[in-house]
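QA checklist item 7 of 12: single-chain prediction sanity check.
[x] sequence parsed
[x] length recorded as 1166
[x] structure emitted
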Amino acid sequence: MHGFKSFAKKEVLKLSEGVTTVVGPNGCGKTNIVDAIRWVLGEQKSTVLRGGKMEDVIFNGAENMKPLSVCDVTLTVHNNKGKLPIEYNDIEIGRRVYRNGESEYSLNKTPCRLKDINDLFVDTGMGSDAYSVIELKMIEQILSENGDDRRRMFEEASGINKYRKQRKSTLRKFDATRFDLERINDVISEVEQKVHGLELQLKRFKRHEKLTLELREKDIQLAFLKIDKYRGIMLPLEQEIKDFNYLKSSKTDQSSKHENELERSRVTYKEQEDELSMLQTELSSLAEKQQNTRQNILVWTEKGKSALSSIDRGKNDYKSNESRIVVLRKDGDLFLKESDVLQNELDSSLLSYKNEKENLDEIEAKYHEELKYLDQIQNDRWNHQKTMVSDRSLYDRTKNLLEDKNKKFEILSDKYLLQKNQSSEIKELISSLEKKHSSADKTFSKNKLDYDALYSKLQNQITSQQDYIKKYNSLSVKIESLKDQQDFYNELIDSNEGFPQGTQYVLENPQIFNDVLGTVADVFQVKEKYRDALENGLGELSHCLISKDKKTGLETLEKAIKANAGDLSIIPFKEAIDYKVKLSPAPKSSNILARASEIIQTDKKLIPLADYILGDLLIVQDLKKAANDKNLEGWRLVDLNGSYSGKDLIIKSRQVSEHGNLIGRKSKLDIISNKLKEIKTKQEKIVKAQSLIDIDIELSKELLDEKESYIKKIEKDLNELESSLMKNHLNQTQCLENIGIIKKDLADTEKIINDSKISIKKLEPNIHKSEKLLSTFQGKINKANQSVLEVGKIRDSQLLALQDARVAMVNIESKKDNLLFKSNSANEQIEAIKKSQANIIGEEKTLNDLKKDFDKKIINGEKELEKINAELQKQRSLIDLKQSVFRDTYEIIDQIQTKIKLEQKDRESILENLKSSEMKLNDLKQKIEIVNERIKERYNASVPVALIVDDSEYDLAYKVEKIQKSLENIGPVNMAVQDEYNEDNERLNHLKKQRDDLVDSEENLRETIQKIDRIARKKFQETFKHISKNYEKLFNLFFEGGYGNLRLVGDPDPLEADIMIDAQPPGKRNTSLRLLSSGEKALTAISLLFAIYQVKPSPYCILDEVDAPLDDVNIHKFTKVLKQFSDETQFIIVTHNKLTMEIANHMYGVTQEKKGVSKLVSVSFD
């Protein structure tokens, strides 16, 4: 221990086992040893350490000794029993604090955190705030009605402090998690709606995008196919155009050459034609003359030959004709004789044929009469039978119809009665059901209205409950925040943090400096907006003390100097209020926010003081701009951030201190306290309202469930009634329709029955009469058939005889005609031959004359023909030569003309084809340009030069049209929906993941809280039970017959219940611990303390003058108990009592050789 409070020099306390006492006069620094142990174990409250701020624990100087800048305390704990959760046997805990407020902690000389030390000692009873350190002033706190300190001792003994901390931390996390979960659920609900809407849009967008890409692909493919097709057509066209242009030029040159050649050939041809024409004329006349001569010679020769052959033929014919005449005369005579014989046979045969013919005609007539009679009878019988069959069929059908209709009439009558009865029953049932339905519907409507009202009420209650929960959670968060702020400002005010040391000393000793009214920072108040500006503008003046007057101010200064208090400044109140300053008017500038003296809120009497201190201080918006403003020269300037520029050219900037602002601390604390009270009041009201509304909600839920069950039952009954009504109405309608149909069927059937009976009566006599008549017709037919057969046989035999007679007659007549023909023919031939003989003689004479004449003509003609032939041969040779030349010329002309015509035709064809090809080429180029422009305009792309396409142009065109229709059906789409959906969906997934994490965290936290509560409750109950038993025994030991008891009251949860201490010394009936004397209170607290030690002994226990109120008798009891516990616990007792000193194993004395500086003296009794 070095530099801690009054221990200026390094001191070492070796605290052995057993009882160690610390003795010394009042004010020598005994309690500083207790404070040092508390401090090194992590005590944070300077008030517990009897200081205003933490730097007060540093040695502050004494006579002839300067203050130290640092203090250092090290505590070594022997962990030989393993009570601390660390593997080391010796643990060295160190703490160091510097004058500037910095502090350091160490474990075994290794830097660590305060949390590490607190975690090391938690639930061991050895912490800075545990029951191992008990001061006299704490006895009142332990036995007070508040009982928080008392409960803390029990929780420390139970070992549930760490659970309590864990539970508190977990509960904060749980509340924060629930709050976050509610917020995130609201956000998720909104985002889900948005994502759902975007999802629908995204589906349309994706379909649109897919179709657009497909359309782009198919359209480009289609364009490529078209362009490729056009280019395929263009290649041969371009080649054709080149060829045509070349042919065009070549054909023009050739054409001019051929025309010149043609003209020359035509002139030659004309000349040759005229010459040949003359020769042809001469040749024609010679040829004609030759032909005539030659023809005459031939005719004459042939005529001579013909005359000779005719003469020879006439002679031969004359001879043959003579012999033929003889033969023909003989045959003619013979044929006439045979003809006469056959004439007689023919006459006899003709007579016989005529007789047979007459007999056959008579038989034939009779046969036809019999056939006619048979046909008539059969027709009469057939007609009669047909009529009879028709009547019989009609009769049978009518009879069957009558039987069927009678049966049907009976069935319909039964159906009619059944349907009528059924209709009556259904009508009665419908009437009954309608009454029930009307009643049930009214009941259902009424209950539905009640249910809606209850449901609406429940929803309002739940909404109110949720609002209360939200408000409660919000208020809890605000309360925690305000409490932290309140603690912070309380600590600042209690420790006077931020003031100089001398000022702190004066403020901490009001009994010495009772004439000091406060500080400038306390009397000047200002709005939050101007606080930083004003505090920096005041500077050190804000630390000034205010005394009643100058005299008391000087006295205060003198006392402070004697006490070596440190720096301080004093302003006399009386003189300050009498001091008046004439303020110059503030310059006019838009940069100036206010004059500092005008915004101060203080007592009217102190306004002159404010004018004096702050009258020349201007608060500006922009310090840099104001510092360069010549109008503001001679003024002190400060901006809202606290940056300052003074008259003395000093420029400074203020950084917010860890102690906050000095000005307005108390007012801020009052505001926080009022807000805290107000919020707590609101929270209590909310809790009450929430408990009421919870009861109302449960009641409403029960009523709603009952009403819902009842409504469902009524609704079920109502549905069943409606179903029954519908079925019965349908059945009734069906019955009525069936009755109408049956009635109609009955009437129709009855009419048919009556008509059938009448028809049957009419048909029966006709049928009997027809049957009798039909039997007579059959007899007649049989007789007629017999007659026809007999006559037919006779006719057939007569027909055969007639045919035989005719054949014989025809044969005879044929033979006769043949003989006559042969005889006539022979006579005719004889006459013809005779005439021919006479002609032959005459022709022979004539032919001989002609032959002689023809011979002379032939000789003359042959001579003339020889002359003509020679001349003709000469002329033909000449013509052949001329014709050959002429033909050559003509062929040349013809060839030239043909060439010219062909060339002209070719040229025209070339020009036409060239024009057509150029037009086609331009058309194809234009089409390609149109396709490219369309693709460029539509897709901002160009048609590729090479592309693999599987579909045909027709298929692609169909697909493009189909896709375009689909896009038109989709309509307009949000093109940015993908990014929006991805962003919101990612956010939603992240939120859901967060929600799941929060739900899991909430469940884990709930389970953790429940687990902590179970463990803590069990530990607390067990510990409390043992402590209670020990307390009764120890109380009875100290008071000898008194009654002491511990009990839990209030909340049924042991962890939340209050611990009540019953203490009744012998002969007293106290109703409150406040009625006990100081000694009785001390013994009661000691009984409780040692009852706790019996359950969970602390390795050490520090008692600071707790025996001061005890008399000697009770001191003996106290020391006796100490000896019992000293085997388990190391006791360090600060005392003035000699009886307590007597039981000590070791003793330390504390003295002050120098004023203000403590020193240790050790004594050992071993």
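[x] summary fact logged: The longest strand covers residues 70-78.
[ ] second reviewer sign-off
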